[in-house]
Structure of Chromosome segregation and condensation protein, ScpB:
Amino acid sequence: MNLKAAAEAIIFASKGITLEKLAKILRITTEETEKILNELADEYNLPDHGVELKRLGDVYRFYTKAEYAQLVQSVGKSIYTKLSVSQLEIVAIIMINGPSTLQQISEIRGKDSSALVRSLHKMGVLTRKRYKNSYIYNLSQRFKELLMIEEVPGDIAEHLQTATPSPSSSEE
């Protein structure tokens, strides 16, 4: 069996996989798997490929190269391109703070967000899970895949939170 071809097929079919899981499936060491992944990444970086192999967090996945993004986007028109500023604000809140209740989202925004959250849930941008007498909302896996994010790294979220001026600080 060609291990490089097998790794390529598994990554493609899984829409992303960790080094450890791929090594286990291929029944080889993580060092051997990492060597194969590096070879694949080098091959896909050549100009005759429209995709590239990237590692995002600890997940390896194929992504469209930037120069072909417009072409690919024209094939699959996304409803996500029509999100309003207010809807994007809710997405940003959840990206930074993690799964949140409607009450938490509304408190952060300073206004009722129920209609916007409901519309984002219907669009498939948000998922919800029952929590006590409420729901906890999170970004859907499909939306995360479209944005090519697994999660917002903690240091970025921390930076964004500290970069926001507090209401008590004022410039004179």
Observations:
- The chain has nine helices and six strands.
- The CA atoms of residues 48 and 65 lie 11 Å apart.
